[in-house]
Description:
By secondary structure, the protein is an alpha/beta fold. The chain has helices at 16-33, 49-58, 108-118, 177-181, and strands at 9-14, 40-45, 64-72, 82-86, 96-104, 124-132, 145-149, 155-156, 172-175. Residues 47, 72, 101-110, 133, 154-156, 160-162 line the site of guanosine-5'-monophosphate.
Amino acid sequence: MKHELQQDIQKVIYSPRRIAGMVKKVGSELSHDYAGKCPLMVVVLKGSAVFAADLIRSLTIDCEVDFMVVSSYVGTQSVGQIQVVQDLRTDIAGRDVVIVEDIIDSGVTLFSLKKLLKEREPNSVKICTLLDKPSGRKAEITADYVGGTVGNEFIVGYGLDYNEKYRNLPFVGVLKESVYSHK
Ligand code: 5GP
Ligand code: MG
């Protein structure tokens, strides 16, 4: 059955089938690189929740999962400032940490988050993102594991929202212009 939110979508960028392929690829890279280890998967809420749920089930190694909520300061604040709204409950000292993100755009959020987590003396910190938007980059940050890339457009679905909606779409797509202008 057609999704009732589908009418707001201009085009689908990644179908559920392609997303599944991306998750499988990233999952097997992680399973290979962390063989014999037990990485802590740090899920950055809310956008990454859907990806993380699929990703951890594609791992064939031991792992643990914890969640974080961060928000970027907007406006006049200097680049690289984030606020930890909800912190991890896990002590990451000596641990192998994998940050699970939905999308990297400017990279500002991840740049600061990685710096913050490194201060807690983990053994390693790597970044795994479903999507990369390289055209938006402002901070010097690269993901270690990337599912796919997107162009300079605002996308929704598979966890990614517009005003908290569209997270439940099973695909990744671009919203119609009319959705922005009518609200
Ligand atoms: P950054 O700090 O890299 O600019 O972006 C951080 C966050 O902004 C991402 O984790 C994501 O939650 C949100 N974001 C960036 N680009 C998009 C996009 O195209 N669509 C949606 N829904 N969120 C985005
Ligand atoms: Mg995010």
